[in-house]
Amino acid sequence: MTDSWQTVLLYGPSVVFAVLLLFSVIREPRRFRNAIWLALFLLCLSSAMMLDFWRDWALIPIVLVVAFTPVVVVGFLLVNTIVVVGHEGFSLSTILPALFAIVMMVCVAVYPLTFYFNAPRWGKGVGLLIALEGLWFFFTFAALLLYSTIYRILPRRRKYDYIIILGAGLQGTKPTPLLRGRIDKAVDLWNRQNRHGLFVVSGGQGADEEISEAEAMKRYLVQKRGVPATAILKEDRSTTTLENLRNCKAIMDQRDGVSGIGSGEGTVVSQTSETKSKRLERMKNRLSCPYRVAVVTSDYHVFRASEYARQLGLKSDGIGSHTKGYYWPTAFIREFIAISKAHFWPYVVIVALWAVWMLLAK
After folding, report:
1. What are phi and psi of 332, to 5 degrees?
2. What angle do CA 65, 68, 73 make, to 5 degrees?
3. Torsions phi, psi of 110, nearest 5?
């Protein structure tokens, strides 16, 4: 085989994934699949370069990285759990890093242990399934972590007609520090575009809250940031991110006299159940939508909010405010779990392929 064909075979997969990534991002940057294409491109490229420029001594650092990365990650997550619980108190949300670490240890150890204890065939099969599901789980976690970070820092020089601020809890009648960060980020954006556009404050009133999050945000904008009340629209009925964006879209559509756009877009569907006609309808709605939106939320929440906005047919960009470092892993793990639930079909495919393999291997 000639050197040129060896080069093609070596770097061909990375070129294919690079093309898929580029095409997908240009077409729509708010898709989960972009994270997968990016991770596969980097994996293939790094593997090809390692094989192309291989040296015997390179095996040592590679083995060390593979061996100690799970240990370092698990240790970090356990320490982070202690820090978060110390700041925020004990709850299911604050112990998520520890639970994540436990899942990682199980996925790494369970399959080798079935051989160590000489488990029966079905036991080894279950161990293999857990390892495969865990491999996809942590691969997509790393992929989304990388891509969502890149998505947040991409330069955007658009002028937005509306700036949606998503709610994040109250302290009495005042925004929490997390929510104040979102509001201040939105005001900074508004000032950068010479105070063009309207704010849409979004968030309903919880059972333990005196006023709605939207009302608290409006008061903060007017009283603390000097924003005129006429520049603020209020959506005060929502309780989830999806409802935030859906209700905000209805308000913006009505104000801009948009008829027929979004009326059938209220339900976010999974990629497996979405029909071609619905995708075409949403694309048509987005192209004909006369306004552009910035969705301001915390940095860890940007990608999921942007994905919902895409599914609702909004022409939008996600803008992230800063989150305290100690809380970021907990928050991102929660976001990843929510995104994984919306993209669950690969886990079903893995089970199906595993079942076929188990039957054929008898």
Report:
1. -70, -35
2. 110
3. -65, -40
Tokens found for residue 351? 């089970």
Pairing of strands 170-171, 162-166: unpaired
Distance CA 266, CA 308 (A): 10
Distance CA 76, CA 98 (A): 9
Average pLDDT (248-265) is: 72
Find the length of the chain: 362
- For residue 33, the tally of other CB atoms under 10 A from its CB is 16
Strands 174-175 and 316-321, by their bridges, are unpaired
pLDDT band at 8 (very low <50, low <70, confident <90, very high): confident
CB atoms within 10 A of CB 126: 17
pLDDT of amino acid 264: 40
pTM listed for this prediction: 0.85
Q: Please give the Cα distance from 173 to 241 (Å, whole number).
A: 21
Which tokens hold the place of 49? Answer: 């370069």
pLDDT of residue 269: 42
Nearest to 317 by CA among 332, 302, 338, 299: 302
Q: Which two tokens stand for residue 43?
A: 């994996």
Nearest residue to 191 (alpha-carbon basis) of 231, 149, 249: 231
Q: To the nearest 10°, report the CA torsion of 68, 104, 308, 169.
A: -100
Q: Count the Cβ atoms, other than its own, within 10 Å of residue 87.
A: 10
165 CB contacts (<8 Å, ≥6 apart)?
A: 182, 183, 186, 199, 200, 201, 202, 217, 296, 297
Question: 3-21 b/e with 16+ CB inside 10 Å = b?
Answer: eeeeeeeebebbeebbebb
Question: What CA–CA distance (Å, rounded) separates 304 from 320?
Answer: 11
* Distances, alpha carbon 49 to alpha carbons 7, 36, 52, 58, in Å: 10, 20, 5, 12
Is 320:276 a contact under the CB 8 Å cutoff?
A: no
User: Which residues are bridge partners to 317 per DSSP?
Assistant: 294
